[in-house]
Amino acid sequence: MEFMRDYPDDATCLEWLWRQRLSLDGEHAYCPKCDRDRKFSKVKDRPAWDCHHCGHHLHPTAGTIFHKSSTSLQLWFYAMYLMTSTRCGISAKQLERELGVTYKTAWRMFSLIRNQLMDESDGPQLTGTVEVDEASVDGKPRKKARNKSEAAKLRERSRATVLAAVERGGRVKATVVPSRRDPAIRENVLSWVNPNAIVMTDEWMIYKGIGREFAGHSTVIYSAREYVRGDTHTNTIEGFFGNLTTGIRGNYKKVSHK
After folding, report:
1. What is the tens place of the pLDDT at every residue in 199-211?
2. CA distance 20 to 25
3. What are phi and psi of 244, to 5 degrees?
């Protein structure tokens, strides 16, 4: 109900985009043709604003995932609301049912929002206190095992290892790595985390010596049943992995390594 109150129609969503992207006060914006700030007004029956001085049009949706989309802008906003407010994720089929669109449309919207709008892989490095950990997400082997030994090998091949780092109270970065022993873990941590940050990890061997690259490095010893020592813990990143695995089980049941 709060969403419908704040974004009741397409016009409200378009106005929000105009103010967020181009005009803080809703009237004045930078005109590339005039090369200065000018007063703009809404063009009737078009998703654009025109300059009072030269008539140049500015389109708030240009360069966004909404550009040239025939889907209602309010439905785009509602899809973003559902994806970000559903704690353990939402599937494209659920999006299809909620929005009343075809599965093809729902899948396209879902893919663009997740892979373009929400992508922060090239964003600023994580700062402050950063927790780092990795977890295995089990896939389902295609081949049936003949014995226990072969079953273990098939499980290992179908298992995906997810590495993640999170700022306390801030952003999270995550990716899939080949294994828990892969050098890519260290390389990703060095590229994700600012050298001035304090890193918190468990005692896994891949993190040994990583403190030399950062302002500090604290470790919790899970093997000794130590989960918190003062401010040192990895509970935030464990919570992220909890939501990740719950979302996979709830929405997709199983995922392949691919």
Report:
1. 999 998 888 888 8
2. 10
3. -60, -50
Question: What digits encode the pLDDT tens for the residues 9-45?
Answer: 999 999 999 999 999 999 999 999 999 999 999 999 8
Residue whose token pair is 């919790």: 220
The residue type of 200 is M
CB-count exposure of residue 97 (10 Å: 0-12, 13-18, 19+): exposed
**Beta carbons of 224 and 198 less than 8 angstroms apart:** no
Domain extent listing, the chain: 6-62, 72-119, 129-251
Grouping H, G, I as helix, E, B as strand and the rest as coil, residue 18 is helix
HSE-CB of 193 using CA atoms within 13 angstroms: 31
Return the higher-pLDDT residue of 91 and 120.
91
pLDDT in tens, 81-103: 999 888 888 889 999 999 999 99
DSSP string, 45-98: TSS-EEETTT--EE-TTTTSTTTT--S-HHHHHHHHHHHHHSTT---HHHHHHH
| Whole-number Å distance between alpha carbons of 79 and 86 | 11
Tokens in use for 80? 């973003």
* Amino acid 151: pLDDT: 65
Q: Looking at the domain that runs over 129-251, which CATH code has it been given?
A: 3.30.420
Report the distance separating Cα 28 and Cα 41, nearest Å.
Answer: 9
Lowest-pLDDT choice from 60-64, 73-77, 96-100, 153-157: 153-157
